[in-house]
Amino acid sequence: MKAGWKLFIGLAVFYAIMAVIYWQVGGEAVGIT
Asked: b/e string for 9-21 if b means 16 or more Cβ within 10 A?
């Protein structure tokens, strides 16, 4: 189960970082919908 929660935390951190970058640069510039 260790791999499961590590994967979950990894994805959570990844999405958090992407959300911050998306917010900093702006939606149109990144092109993420």
From this structure: eeeeeeeeeeeee
What is the distance between the alpha carbons of residues 11 and 16, in angstroms, rounded to a whole number?
8
Helices (H), the chain: 2-25, 27-30
> What global pTM score does this model have?
0.54
Using only the alpha carbons of the chain, give its radius of gyration: 13
What is the share, in percent, of the chain residues with pLDDT greater than 90?
39
Give the C-alpha separation, 28 to 22, whole Å: 9
